[in-house]
């Protein structure tokens, strides 16, 4: 799965830790998602999309 999480995070000038705190996960989870080592649960994908006020499809696409 490809994602634009790092781009969206950079637009808001957030660290991985700050974003992690906002959505209730660890910084390592955000890092793993951004580097493609971990695909988020559906619940987490929706939390991230809600936080960035975008659709899940804006953040994540299938390869």
Automatic annotation (TrEMBL):
A Pfam match: HTH_3
Domain HTH cro/C1-type: 5-59
Record keywords, A-Z: DNA-binding
A GO MF label: DNA binding
PANTHER family: DNA-BIDING PHAGE PROTEIN, TRACRIPTIONAL REGULATORY PROTEIN-RELATED-RELATED
Name by which UniProt lists this protein: Transcriptional regulator
Tagged with keyword rRNA-binding: no
Keyword S-adenosyl-L-methionine tagged: no
